[in-house]
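Module 6 notes. Inverse folding takes a fixed backbone as the condition and produces residue identities as the prediction. Think of it as a translation problem where the source language is geometry and the target language is the twenty amino acids. Below is one complete input and output pair. Work through it position by position during the lab.
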């Protein structure tokens, strides 16, 4: 049985995965700006760099207290012979720009 994350990553939509390894690059007073970073990237994708990969196995969502809500999949480079839909996976974010945009909004 496929999980929701498996379905999303294989649906052939234009998917951009932004993990906490990227959103944790944006910090304000000791707090990670996960949601603001994801929203700003959705509005302006040029704020990140990403690689285009495809999931090579099923995407698992963990349901335990320690890993609650976490996703894990092995992503591999796209090969010409692959019939898998690709997924954009964020690897870096322009943290100073994102932080500045958030601060501008907060100061308005």
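Target side of the pair, the amino acids:
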């Amino acid at each position: 049985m496929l999980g929701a994350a498996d379905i999303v990553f294989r649906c052939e939509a234009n998917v951009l995965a932004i993990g906490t390894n990227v959103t944790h690059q944006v910090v304000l007073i000791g707090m990670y700006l996960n949601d603001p970073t994801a929203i700003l990237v959705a509005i302006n994708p040029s704020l990140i760099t990403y690689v285009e990969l495809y999931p090579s196995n099923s995407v698992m969502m963990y349901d335990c207290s320690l890993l609650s809500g976490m996703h894990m999949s092995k992503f591999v480079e796209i090969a010409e012979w692959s019939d898998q839909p690709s997924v954009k996976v964020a690897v870096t974010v322009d943290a100073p720009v994102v932080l500045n945009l958030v601060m501008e909004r907060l100061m308005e």
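Reference fact for the lab report: The helical segments are 4-9, 20-23, 34-43, 95-107.
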